[in-house]
Amino acid sequence: MKSNQELQTDVQNAIKWEPLLNDAEIGVTAKDGVVSLSGVVDSYAKKMEAENAAKKVIGVKALVEKIEVNFPGSLKKTNVEIANEVLASLKANLSIPQDKVTVKVEDGWVTLEGELPWNYQKEAAKRGINYLIGVKGVTNSIKIKADTYDAIEKKVVEDAIARSWSVDDSDINISVSGTTVTIDGTVDSWYEKEEASRIVWNTPGVWNVKNELVVDYDYAFSE
Q1: DSSP 3-state of 57
Q2: What distance in Å separates the CA atoms of residue 36 and residue 41, rounded to the nearest whole number?
Q3: Whole-structure pTM over 0.85, yes or no?
């Protein structure tokens, strides 16, 4: 059971614990399990690190992220330069099929589009550009269109989640409709919620995952 102050302190410490963020000026507020992050960082990677660090803290139910990326003058790049580096990153990643992803860059913000057969490829495409200098943000609009058209069996998905030591499946429900899998119920942490999604996405034939899990950590706040 954490108060607002305790949760705020835990998130602040989690962010400072990350080597990339130990000198970053990131503000943290907490209210009833909702954590807000604000501030300015000099790379998109730091913005993502702060968000990921906060998500892993027990007691965080939702995250409001208002961190801005502002590059020093010497690190600024044109949209064309950024686009060329993103394309080079995609080409160098052997897990991503060539010529399946299109790139748009506007004011340093990268948008990825196209179709890929697996979600891990979609995630790899974004992960590969998180650390590129000049990138202010990424919108990953790649769609999943699996190569297999086999029917998705509900029990196969349930068994996959049950095998994971990191997810308590006692209050997780699975439903399948065509190529879409919906997961709902309750988990104890944001990490479990995202891990459940990751596991479901690994199921052959899945084109879409609706994660409606609720993070229900026993939380109390004090004035």
Answers
A1: coil
A2: 15
A3: no
